[in-house]
Fold:
Amino acid sequence: MRIGETEWNGIWEVLGCKWTFHIIRLLAQEDAQFNHIKHAIEGLPASTLSTRLKALQREGVVTRDVDETASPPTVTYSLTEKGIELAEIIAQIEELESRYS
Structure:
């Protein structure tokens, strides 16, 4: 296998968006529904949020859980094990940045 040919190959494209870090940080604190995420992250357009969540799902970072017993059905997003590890790395990077800035 050559460098770059890993299952994380597409994650760099996903992480290239500034909103992705905010979404992962929020979901690291709590599972959340779409509107909660949209309102919690100031300036995040709904269309961008939808695109980012789909990309994060494709990469195995976020799961989408539909509760059809609720009326109306509710959708909750949460981090996968991969997402939790990524959130920990992001937190370490932010800690490093705060120490040296």
